Amino acid sequence: MRIAIATLDSDENAPISSVGARSPWILIFENGKLVEKIKNPFTVGGGAGFGVANMLIEKHVDAFVAGKFGPNLQQQLESHGIKCIPGAGSAKEFLTKLQN
Fold first, then answer.
1. Which residues have CB under 8 Å from 59's CB, separation 6+?
2. Angle between helices 71-79 and 48-58 (to 10 degrees)
3. Are 66 and 44 within 8 A, CB to CB?
4. pTM of this prediction?
5. 3-state secondary structure of 34
6. How many separate domains does the chain show?
7. Using CA atoms, how far apart are residues 81 and 52, in angstroms rounded to an integer?
8. Do the beta carbons of residue 29 and residue 3 sit within 8 Å?
9. Which of 3, 7, 66, 77 would bridge with 14, disulfide CB 3.0–4.6 Å?
10. What is the CATH number of the domain that holds 16?
């Protein structure tokens, strides 16, 4: 399973961002291992929800974790079968809880 997590930094122990589309970083984990770090190019300007959604769709993720999701982001992800999971704490801790 590929899980993307919105974070405040590029480290897997970074806190989960309270915002999904405008988080500074998006980390992608596959089977519990960090496989990709993305500096979010959509942190300013309009269309962040659609931009991040399309990026995650192209990355073939199964779920996206963030503190909150805007309506455009959530609708776009869910229409492509990607789960939106509210989360808090560090990315690695949340991922461990999610897998247990």
1. 2, 4, 28, 36
2. 30
3. no
4. 0.95
5. strand
6. 1
7. 15
8. yes
9. 7
10. 3.30.420.130
**Domain extent for 77:** 2-99
E strands present in the chain: 2-7, 25-30, 33-39, 63-66, 83-86
- Measured CA to CA, the distance from residue 32 to residue 72 in angstroms comes to 28
Cα separation, 36 vs 33, in Å, equals 9
At 73, list the tokens.
């982001």
Separation between Cα atoms, residue 7 and residue 88, nearest integer Å? 10
Q: Which residues contact 97 (CB under 8 A, 6 or more apart)?
A: none
Six-digit token string for 87: 């989360």
Over residues 50-91, the pLDDT tens digits come to 999 999 999 999 999 999 999 999 999 999 999 999 999 999
Burial of 46 (0-12, 13-18, 19+ CB in 10 A): exposed
